[in-house]
Amino acid sequence: MSKPSTDRADKQRIAEELKPVVREAHALAGKLGLDPYPVNYWIVDYDEMNSLVAYNGFQERYPHWRWGMTYDQQRKQRQFLGGKAYELVNNDSPAHAFLQESNAMADQKAVITHVAAHADFFANNQWYGLFTDDPNAARMLASHADTIESYMDDPEIDREAVEKWIDNVLCLEDCIDQHQPFSTVDDWLDETPSEADINEKLEELDLSEEVLGQVFDEEWLDQQRETEGVTSFPIEPEHDLISFLRTHGMGYDEDAEKAVEFEDWQREIMELLRREAYYFAPQKMTKVLNEGWAAYWESIMMGEEGFAAENEFIHYADHQAKVLGSPGFNPYKLGKELWEYVENVTNRREVVEHLLRIEGVTWRNFHDTVDLDDVLESLDPDPIVDRVASETLDQLDPADPRVDVDGLERAKAGEIDVDRFPWKVLTYDGIAERHYSLAKPQNRGFLAQITQNDVERIARYMFDDARYASIEEALENVDYRAGWNRMYEIRESHNDVTFLDEFLTQEFVEEHGYFTYEYMETTEDYRVTSTDVEDVKKKLMLQFSNFGKPTVVVEDGNYNNRNELLLSHQYNGVMLDVEQAHQVLKRVFKLWGHPVNLKTIVKELSENDIEVARRRDSEPTPEETGKLLRYDGENLSITDLPWKEVEHLAATDVDYDTKPDEWLA
């Protein structure tokens, strides 16, 4: 049984205690280069936190049974498994973060620093900008809740029908085109020119009859006659199923046993749920990137800058160990490790580029002429910024770009406890040098790990003719900010798929012990199959492509010229669960009004194939075949398809469906 919630006065007292903590945390975040949305912090009790978790971090959502189910799961996880919601923040401007009143001060500080980094990611990652440049998600979701609740309360509309309709649409909530900017379905329809629009434009052009005759000649008219009555659409596969169904679909009236036009409330609910799917898409697309980013900066602030007081540090260390050490796939751990790797690789490259500009040093003789252990000693941060204290203030030069002049004056005047908060007298430049990654104990072997091939690769792309006379002169010009600057660049443009694709390397895989495993048909168990980076990368990236869900698109809205819907599964080596696909087709049928078809590819193995492979101590190779699933409102049928009809669905390698062309620049 949980303890009683604190009353309003107790929550107010906790909020007052945390005000200076929030102020100092966000000031430190700014010094580190973070630029977050403003954040409103709320003190909540145990039950309120469970409700917020169920509502995806918001206080108001539309009425639906799934929120209660999620709440119950969260409550039982805490009660029986010891799970705890340490932090909860939503993507909004201002962002809203929730602190559980029963947490210790060390936990509250960890959450506040973690949230500051999340709010920075929300504000600056460009994938979030695809939904809107000015998010006010709390207001949007509250408005959606009011609208849907009004339909449920309408005596002319059956409440159960509304719930079922929501269920039908939610089965497709990940079937959107998350790589394109959000626009409403109505906006899209308004932009599609009608025949009258085309005629009006032609009139405005004031073309002569001769020109019109040349453009719209008899051959063109004949082509139109040939295709008259055949209306296959869309021209290209459509990823946004909800948009397509809202525009072209019909409801299925079970009593009349026929397709009928959507009611206005049905169309509006489809669009509201579609809008929410687009809003939450960036968070699903950046789980590793975003959680790793927050875990990295939380660690810098709480541990390395001592934001956790001495009497709080052990508690915080235990807190972070639980978060980073939780079993199974852990986005916090993988993300933090990858961000640290990016930082180290960037700093190492910066150093090597300067060393390669020394007279007489080339990639061929690099390891013979440069003592990397001596180089590392020279890269230790300047003690002036590394060991700032009240007794060393006179050593700080106000003209030094690493020194915050205003902070230094306030520290000398006794307004700043510089022994507790040394970062207050330093600028971004000074703090970056203070936290230089290659000089940290856990990373001191990283520079020496560079291979001859790595050095050659770096030298191949160097076009700067600058030359240094000595190692000392070269190292004086190393930019201690390089790693952080690169991290901020990546934070702006990447999602999980592109992040893993670009920065997961064999070096990282070996250093952190990543591997792949597969189910063995012959031994009927799971076994490690590879530690090769390409295999690990494929395995990981498949978890993030299309939110880890199958990519299904609309291929034809008039399949076989019978008003049937044809969906296609973009097969990337992972089969559909046929039973789940059947359940989804049942719901899509309710949104289309006519039979629904789905093309896919399956892997087939016979018992004989498995037995032969077992005798040879190998794994059988399954045969890939095309299948067509069809649901007509009553029955599901599965028929074989010739390979030529599904060949276009099969990826040549692994199709990660990362981003549109304009993001590749």
From TrEMBL:
Pfam families: SpoVR, SpoVR_C. InterPro entries: Spore_V_R (IPR007390), SpoVR-like_C (IPR057008), SpoVR_N (IPR056174). Residues 16-348, 477-547 form the SpoVR protein-like N-terminal domain. Residues 550-601 form the SpoVR-like C-terminal domain. This is SpoVR family protein. It comes from Halocatena salina.
